[in-house]
Amino acid sequence: MGKDALTGTARRPDDLVVGVDYGTLSGRAVVVRVSDGKELGSAVHPYAHAVMDTELTAGPCADAGTPQQLPPDWALQVPGDYVDVLKEAVPAALAAAHEAHGVHAGDVIGIATDFTACTMIPTLEDGTPLSETEQFADRPHAYVKLWKHHAAQPQADRINKLAHERGEPWISRYGGLISSEWEFAKGLQLLEEDPEVYAATAHWVEAADWIVWQLSGRYTRNACTAGYKGIFQDGEYPSMEFLAALNPDFAGFAKGKLSDDVAPLGGLAGRLTAEASAWTGLPEGIAVGVGNVDAHVTAPAANAVEPGQMVAIMGTSTCHVMNGTELHEVPGMCGAVDGGIVAGLWGYEAGQSGVGDIFAWYVENQVPGEVTAAAAERGVSVHEHLTDLAARQAPGEHGLVALDWHSGNRSVLVDHELSGLVLGATLTTRPEDVYRALLESTAFGTRKIVETFQASGVPVTEFVVAGGLLKNQFLMQMYSDVTRLPLSTIVSEQGPALGSAIHAAVAAGAYPDVRTAAAAMGARVENAYTPNEDAARVYDELYAEYSTLHDYFGRGTNEVMSRLKALRRRQVATRTGAAPEGAES
């Protein structure tokens, strides 16, 4: 075993690491060579229960054929599905790497994972999820609250209102608003809607930390989710006095159910247990990296961790992350955390809670049969067919403008009571017109985020894209045109998994820090797309209309969207018997 000339760390040429990316619907494992980041084998395992957003399809009632109805804006998952990824995807990735390259599991020196966030699990003291106990197996609040569980918006509103009334200093680190997706809003909802499950919860655990707990046998809180999703700033959570003012029974939430033992990203969480070794086929005792978030690990995978490089991970949703040298307050951002992406820089996060989900909703629910048949005849997907039709148009030719709020707004308004809108439809509007308008709406939402960062003293000089939507070249050019930024693309097709592998290499001691590992193992294609001035000028006009609608519906001028959501919740509860918001489910 020699020393690397650049880092001075011990590393063998054949050392491998494994990265596991937990997405919304599946988990992906990738086997990566430490020396250069080459991906040698990968595998995907879908979650058996997927996302439970209308019915609780797990537990005794579901097994008996009578699943419980869930109220609107819920999104739950089953923690056992995450363990199945370790049992299925990791051995399959190892087998693929062995078949293609002749490598062996014994060469793996570390494993690390990432998760969609904020995804929360209530557990017993030993980490057992409450949904796996006989007492609570039929209680919806005992299950995982996925990142897109938005039913805690009333609790988020109260947190925000009280924080501003009291002048809490931490609220400015989040652009002035806490999201309903995050730990405290979801925890307060748990208390107020199912106090028995809340009382039984010994730990309120991010899934990113829970899966590391299953691998290493140790509960380690990662700095990323603690800072961005858990209101952990300058070594402290919000005070007991603040929490008591929200609800007297919430006073001990932070001290009682959250850990303040926060570990740095790229750190060593522990060693792979014998049980986890049997699940995965990996050597017992190898390094297990501290948990992380899918978006934040992707920046190193693209080797885009320097100030000014905004990385957008575009999939069902989009998360925007970037580093800065200084702390600035950016309205509506998801957080600014010291070392939140890499040590020594302020990590910023913003996001759009619906992007690919919006396109999928449209294709699955709004497209006429003739379009589906035409796509099948061409041998392409409906998405590809509509994209090809939309690409024949000039910008603005459809006469439409849309708002990308079908799953609420994460940034910069931080309001999940908002909903989608398409304006300008006529009797001649075609499916491809609406599809293109929806594509454009997400680009406009990203431009709103970029401009907000720019105006707040955090310059964006390069836009770097990763994620599943990267393959849509028409969409990529549109984003460059709309934002008027050069657009770079990640080389890896599985950025988060590679990013986790990079963190595994650091945890195992192969590199001294994440920035050094990113330079060796990550890569991007710089300036893969550049703005087209003719298109950009027309998009400027459309963006002006988008901005008018954005402020009219999103900044309190007209609250029709929230009133419609309240009416929907009331009527759904009346029809189905599901508990309305604020009552026990």
Overview of this protein structure:
The structure is a single chain. It is built from 20 helices and 26 strands. The protein is of the alpha/beta class. It folds into two domains: 293 residues, Nucleotidyltransferase, domain 5 (2-Layer Sandwich), CATH 3.30.420.40; 220 residues, ATPase, nucleotide binding domain (Nucleotidyltransferase, domain 5, 2-Layer Sandwich). Strands 3, 4, 5, 9, 15, 16 and 17 form a seven-stranded mixed β-sheet that branches. Helix 3 crosses helix 4 and helix 16 packs across helix 19. The termini are far apart.
Cα-based radius of gyration, to the nearest Å: 23 Å
Termini, distance in Å? 58 Å
**What is the typical, i.e. mean, pLDDT?**
95
> How many distinct folded domains?
2
Helix vs. strand class: alpha/beta
Number of strands: 26
Q: What form results from the Cα inertia axes?
A: globular
- Residue windows where pLDDT falls under 50 for at least 5 positions: 1-9, 580-585
The number of helical segments is: 20
CATH architecture of the largest domain: 2-Layer Sandwich
Note the quaternary state here.
Answer: single chain
Question: In CATH, what is the homologous superfamily of the largest domain?
Answer: ATPase, nucleotide binding domain
Strand content: 15-25%
Which topology of the largest domain does CATH recognise? Nucleotidyltransferase, domain 5
The CATH class of the largest domain is identified as: Alpha Beta
Tell me roughly what share of residues is in helical segments.
Answer: 25-40%
Largest sheet, in brief, is: 7 strands, mixed
